[in-house]
Amino acid sequence: MNVTGDEQIRKLVKTAIAPSRETALDMDLWPRIERRLKEPAIQVPWFDWVLVALVLIICLFMPQAVPGLFYNL
After folding, report:
1. pLDDT one-digit tens code per residue, 40-53
2. Alpha-carbon gap, residue 22 to 9, rounded angstroms
3. Distance (Å, whole) CA 65 – CA 55
4. For residue 57, what pLDDT band results from cuts at 50, 70 and 90?
5. Staple 1 to which of 5, 24, 49, 62, CB 3.0 to 4.6 Å?
């Protein structure tokens, strides 16, 4: 393209896309981030740990169950 073509394209783009007049955010995100950081970490219920232990014990004593477990995952 030549220089005049580039200038014409720039003018067309500037007229088609109006500059944003809004420079500030409507709300600040930092307070929400701080609240989220102060929240406690994910807590795993005791029942989930029991299920994990049960699966591990079954896999230890019955290795033939491992392919079935992998199939169902």
Report:
1. 888 889 999 999 99
2. 25
3. 10
4. very high
5. 5
